[in-house]
Amino acid sequence: MRTLMKSLPLAAALCVPAFQAQAALTLTADAIADGFTLALTIDSVPASGYCCGPLGIATNSAGQIVMQDYPNGANYVFANHDGQHFSDALSSAAYSSFSYGAAIANSGGQLYATNNDFGGVIFKLDPDGTKGLALTGTGAGGHGLWTNPVTGHLVAGNYDGIRDIDPATSTVTQLVSGVDVDGVSVSPDGTVVYGANGGHVYGWKYNGDFVYDSGYIGSPDGTGVIMGSTPFAGDIIANGNDGTVWLLNPTTGVNLLLATGGSRGDYVGVDNTNGSLFLTQTDSVYRLTCGTDCTFTNPIPEPDTLALAGAGLGLLGFVLRRRRLLSA
């Protein structure tokens, strides 16, 4: 879709008044009535003078929060609970960020990250945020990364479009061309990709067909899609540079303002342990939840849960085999 607006130059797009860094993101009355909640997860994150601090964020295989801090050029690991300060970080690992911060996503328990400053290469990350082996060559990623909930493939956005990456084979497939896309995400059925550009959130089928335009909503950046068995399933959350958060319904075209008063919203990230959504701000991270049976991913069972499930299946198999022997 080459007719879409190109993004503003980086310096202009990231320029916000310094006083906004202390702003508090607050839910609207409509959001509260619909069952959304918002909690401050990490505060006092070091931020650059014109842009941001926390950017890419996800949970690792141990359920910990891994967050990239833009000015420090490092990935930090935190315990997974709200009410933390940046000084509570458990560890850090260098990960460069000079023009764009890193985007981070979890697929099958493995963390992946991409950064324009590493040539758009998508890397594997160790659980402590350390850069591991390259998954792709240059140009595959840049400044947006998400996991397709159906295939487990990565979806990456950058200055010239959106790509699908198979983590098992490193195969890179161009889905959308000619658009500078930020904040990518994927529909619950895995067939539509969304991305922010020029004040809108757009959607494309996996074959590249253009299917959705939110209309102008200010300065959306990171996006995430609601799943689960709820009336909001399939709706899009858009985290805006102007301190707003929107709920977008791609079926009805209705846009609902969920939160206001923030600083500079940027990336979003999924907590794979409980399905909540992280929202990064200039110097803080918030956690958004959307009520009963509402999730942004299918939660990964804890190791103890998996062990109990395996034991239960083993016992069931033993009982069934014994019944067959007794009835023979």
Please give a quick description of this structure:
By secondary structure, the protein is mainly beta.
CATH topology name: Neuraminidase
Structural class: mainly beta
**How many domains in all?**
1
- Number of extended strands: 28
What characteristic shape results from the CA principal axes?
globular
Low-confidence stretches: 1-21, 299-328
Strand order of the largest sheet: 1-24-23-22-20
CATH superfamily: TolB, C-terminal domain
Supply the number of helical segments. Answer: 3
The main sheet comes to: 5 strands, antiparallel
Radius of gyration: 20 Å
Tell me the span between the first and last alpha carbons. 66 Å
CATH class label: Mainly Beta
Oligomer: single chain
In round numbers, the mean pLDDT is: 85
Helix content, binned percent:
10-25%
Beta-strand percent range? 35-45%
Question: From the coordinates shown, what is the CATH architecture?
Answer: 6 Propeller
